[in-house]
Write a structure and sequence with these properties.
Radius of gyration of chain A: 26 Å
Low-confidence stretches of chain A: none
Number of strands of chain B: 0
Oligomer: heterodimer
Largest sheet of chain B: none
Order of helices and strands of chain B: HHHHHHHHHHHHHHHHHHH
Low-confidence stretches of chain B: 49-102
Distance between the termini of chain A: 12 Å
Number of helices of chain A: 5
Strand content of chain A: 5-15%
Shape of chain B: elongated
Largest interface: A-B, 6 and 8 residues
Mean pLDDT of chain B: 88
Strand content of chain B: under 5%
Structural class of chain A: alpha+beta
């Protein structure tokens, strides 16, 4: 079985959006779409599931605030409760206002950084990563839709020609 | 066009009637003289106040010490609230240790103690007499400032040329229609304060000022004619903007060009400058001067944040109500979502200012500033920290979710909690300086809220029924109709 795919190339995001909708309506499975900039509503048109990054971030924030609370409770209250300038260090709650700035910053720090790292992991981005764009023009001014071919090459080529593609290529993928 | 449903109309009238009855009851049951106060205190004799009196009559020596310490406490607590002195008075009894006794002056001290007791009774009398007034004052300023929050939000939307909000302009104008009524009632209450019908503002009492150097040095600013003139200017300024802005918005509907829109843009920008200056002064005059020994520089912002978020919440509540009745055809969940985001964001902004004010004073712990928070933490513990839970913890957990911001019942629930929380916030700002430890959310307080809520509903929905709910020729109205997030 061959690994043939179709590269349908467009030069306008509106035409691309229409093409995506038509392709979905014709029940061709879209492997991937490459665009030089975010196209509003493309994920919805493709039927992609919504991201769960925000939920991750909320959990990371909870971890951050827990860590800050634990850390300062241990250092300032449990381990060595010194009298520093008359601040009450008998219990955490008594001295809590002084800890809030750190608790806040740690929450934000954990939420932000861990979310970004999660994003990198999930989208497989790192330094020295091999770039994956199938056509250099997709980073500048062209849009590319990739659809797998299942012994229906002729039909697909004519279908994408009719959706306003400026170029339709059939590629053997390794 | 919206028609004021007869059900809602009778509901608002019932609220007003119930409120009036309760307010009247509050004033009727307030004690008239110190004999009644003595009776009230005697009926609480299982509590602290009765014990104090008992000790005074039986043990002269101890009474002497009590007086001495009481005097000492009084001097050290010169900068505190009057009610703080009373607190200390009660605590002194337990804390005193026998150090010196002058048998010879016992009778003299007993006379002195009798005078102290009289003073204490007068003090409690003032607090109890203040209670219905303070309840009325809190509810009145709360609803009036909600409309100011809406008005400020509306002006910002005009100046920012927001593309999403023009479909809500008529809702905002409807809510601000309460402003003239609210300001008239509020102004009357201020005048009554000046005519010594109550002791809400102790600096208005020449007897107090004469014996209080701190207040006396502030009398260049805190004097009745200047104070009431400022109030008049602020209220007139705000009402003028509201009147002309609504008028121009209606005129724009019938116009052939955008001249009225541009006019509104200009007066809104001017109003915002006027507003931020007057808002700051307003917060000193009407709220901070209740505790005339205390001052805080970010207080104006703090008050602004409190009523601004309440105003936005009120817009969301009225919008959701009108939408559920099928009157706001072009308002979709994206508009509601935007309002919910503002509710969320400004709840956090309020908390930021609340905490900044609290933490800076707590951290430095300077005696003349910290008394403000000691009063609140010791006497108002639940309302003081409860307000933070209602205005911060609840909204941040419930409104952080994008989907929840579009669900009506969640939004209504969050809105009710936020509005109640900010009422308590104003309660916390005003009550400790007026009624001290005599606070209670009882008939007076609830009735005052019901009355102003009824009036608010009546005026706002009457105003909403007077003009079409969709501005026709606003340059951004098409964008707003198709707003989608």
């Amino acid at each position: 079985m061959s690994n043939k795919v179709i590269y349908a190339i467009y030069n306008d995001d509106d035409i691309l959006m229409d093409a995506v909708k038509q392709t979905r309506a014709a029940h061709h499975h879209i492997e991937e779409v490459f665009t030089p900039f975010p196209v509003h509503g493309l994920d919805k048109a493709m039927g992609l599931a919504p991201t769960r990054l925000a939920i991750c971030s909320f959990i990371y924030g909870c971890i951050g605030i827990s860590f800050a609370t634990w850390m300062m409770n241990y250092i300032m209250i449990q381990d060595w409760p010194q009298d520093i300038g008359g601040k009450p260090s008998f219990s955490y709650i008594e001295n809590m206002p002084a800890f809030v700035p750190i608790m806040f910053e740690m929450t934000v720090f954990f939420a932000a950084h861990l979310m970004v790292i999660t994003f990198y992991m999930r989208s497989r981005l790192w330094p020295f990563k091999q770039a994956e764009n199938p056509d250099v023009r997709t980073t500048d001014d062209h849009f590319l839709m990739e659809v797998a071919v299942h012994n229906n090459e002729e039909e697909l080529v004519s279908f994408f020609k009719s959706t306003g593609a400026v170029e339709v290529k059939v590629i053997e993928k390794h | 066009m919206y028609t004021f449903s007869s059900k809602l109309k009778s509901f608002s009238i019932i609220l007003m009637a119930l409120g009036l009855l309760g307010i009247g009851y509050g004033f009727f049951t307030a004690p008239k003289n110190i004999q009644e106060v003595e009776k009230i205190l005697a009926s609480e004799s299982h509590g602290e106040h009765g014990e104090v009196k008992h000790e005074v009559t039986t043990d002269g020596a101890e009474a002497h010490e009590l007086v001495a310490s009481h005097k000492g406490v009084k001097e050290s607590a010169e900068t505190t609230e009057p009610n703080m002195v009373e607190e200390s008075h009660d605590e002194v009894k337990g804390a005193v240790a026998a150090t010196e006794t002058h048998e010879g002056v016992v009778s003299h001290d007993q006379v002195k103690e009798a005078a102290e007791h009289e003073e204490h009774l007068t003090h409690v009398l003032h607090q109890l007499q203040n209670k219905p007034w303070a309840a009325l004052y809190v509810a009145c300023i709360f609803f009036m400032l909600i409309t100011m929050g809406v008005l400020a939000f509306y002006a910002i939307q005009q100046v920012a040329q927001a593309g999403w909000s023009p479909v809500l302009f008529r809702v905002m104008q409807g809510i601000t229609a309460y402003l003239p009524y609210g300001s008239v009632i509020f102004f009357i209450i201020l005048i009554l304060c000046g005519l010594h019908f109550n002791h809400l503002f102790i600096w208005l009492d020449p007897e107090v000022v004469a014996h209080d150097e701190l207040i006396a040095t502030k009398s260049g600013y805190l004097n009745f004619p200047f104070w009431i003139a400022r109030a008049a200017i602020f209220l007139i300024g705000w009402n003028l903007y509201r009147y002309y802005s609504a008028k121009n918005c209606l005129a724009q509907d019938e116009s052939n060009d955008d001249s009225f829109y541009k006019k509104n843009f200009n007066i809104s920008a001017g109003f915002l400058v006027f507003f931020i200056v007057t808002e700051s002064i307003m917060s000193w005059d009407w709220i901070m001067s209740i505790d005339p020994h205390w001052f805080s520089t970010l207080f104006g912002w703090y008050v602004l944040a409190s009523f601004f978020v309440s105003g936005i919440t009120m817009i969301a509540m009225v919008t959701v109500y009108l939408k559920s009745r099928g009157y706001l055809e072009h308002v979709n969940t994206s508009h509601i979502h935007d309002l919910a985001k503002f509710m969320f964001g400004f709840s956090i902004f309020w908390t930021y200012l609340w905490f900044s004010q609290f933490m800076l004073i707590w951290y430095a712990n300077i005696p003349e500033e910290i008394t403000y928070f000691i009063t609140r933490i010791e006497l108002y513990n639940l309302p003081f920290f409860g307000a933070v839970v209602m205005n911060f913890v609840f909204p941040i957990l419930i409104l952080i979710n994008t989907d929840f911001k579009r669900i009506t019942w969640i939004l209504v629930m969050a809105g009710v909690v936020i509005l109640a929380g900010h009422y308590i916030d104003f309660f916390n700002m005003i009550m400790p300086g007026t009624v001290g430890d005599r606070w209670f959310i009882g008939i007076s307080e609830i009735a005052s809220v019901l009355f102003f809520l009824g009036l608010f509903i009546f005026v706002v929905f009457t105003a909403l029924a007077k003009s079409p709910l969709l501005p026709r020729r606003n340059p951004y109205i098409e964008e707003s109709k198709h707003f989608h997030y």
